[in-house]
Amino acid sequence: MSIYEGLSADKLAVVLDLGARYTKFGFIGEFAPRCIIPSEIKCPSSGKIRYIYSYTDENDLYSLLVEFVHMLFFKHVLVTPKDRHVVIVESLLCPTLFRDTLAKVLYRHFEVASILFVPSHLVALCTLGVKTALVIDVGYEEVQIIPVYEGVPILKAWQAQPLAAKAIEARLRNNFINAYNNMKNAAGDCGDTDTFAEDVSELPDSVIEDIKVRGCFVTTMERSEMISKSEPVKEPPPLKYRIKGDKLILIPGICRETAFEVLFERDNDTNSIQDLVLKSILECGIDTRKQLAENLFLVGGTVMAPGFKSRFMREVKALLHSPEYCDRLPLNTVKLHNPPAKDNYTCWLGGAIFGATDMLQMRSLSREKYLSLNTVPDWSNLAHNELVISKLPT
Ligand SMILES: Nc1ncnc2c1ncn2[C@@H]1O[C@H](COP(=O)(O)OP(=O)(O)OP(=O)(O)O)[C@@H](O)[C@H]1O
Ligand SMILES: [Mg+2]
């Protein structure tokens, strides 16, 4: 890219989607990010590997971001950030401190030409070419649901709960420790101790994540009901997983099958993922509900798990026909969109498509403007929500 870039007058803009677990980074107009890397960096002060979102205060975040953005530009895409246009795909629920600090790092430290902040739920629709959808982002920290109607996010209907990869991994670790203790005793009796060479409670997060992605799946609704009622079911085969090159641990079939159940379990507050979807639709205007239900759009890495989408649709349909919702939400059809890319970078792709339009020139915040304002306009701040009335020629 950098070779051809020297020939053209304009520098190609970059697109950054800085997620809680993975960062997607690449150029506008391309069909996939150049890199998808963990959002972590070696801390300049302590030398430890730290997640970007584990910051303690603004200064800490600033130094983490300086290192991280430097690595993105100079190790992964090999172009200079100076005088470059940047598109940032961010959640509408992103903390203001994070957004302001990221802007400060890019404008003041790396001297980028301009930044265009785009809401991830909204630009994800650019990949489909539709204006209305209920966007359900199941990433790492939480599931975030925001309906978009005719290109406008309906903010009063947003829903968010910590029901995503982090909760699944915590459940997997928990189930695994319980099952492991039972298995260890049983193996001790029959002398097969080699299989359980490692204490599972000390497995690092990255290993638990790898076990989840390679070994776990979302089970069917029928089997889930049987397991929750402790009815006898045929267990899936266990998985032998190698750690540290030479040690084997055995992942029981039941752990592989039940880790994702945490998303669909209905607790006392009925905050399962299917409840949140229907609650969000109910919060929207009555004339928009049918269209939203027929345009569900799942994005985020967690929805890539085998069986996730079919289970999700079964749960939503079953809840829709339950006595709790059938009167309040009399809808017959629920449909799901199929994105043209992998689910974990659909929002990034939306940003890459949006950034390739004239909107980049029209809506970006230039460095000069930022330096005079010393802040980034924010939808949540009333000071920036002034009505702009263009003066008509007299
Ligand atoms: N094929 C897969 N099966 C199951 N999980 C997967 C798969 N691929 C990725 N994941 C999980 O998706 C999660 C990351 O998803 P994503 O990239 O959408 O999160 P994020 O954008 O970093 O987080 P957030 O949106 O909460 O800020 C990781 O926990 C990863 O383990
Ligand atoms: Mg994300």
UniProtKB/TrEMBL annotation:
Q: Which domain of life is it from?
A: Eukaryota
The protein's matches in Pfam families, at most eight in alphabetical order, are given as: Actin (PF00022)
Spell out the family assignment given in the record's similarity comment: Belongs to the actin family.
What this protein is called in its record is Actin-related protein 10
CDD domains for the chain: ASKHA_NBD_Arp10
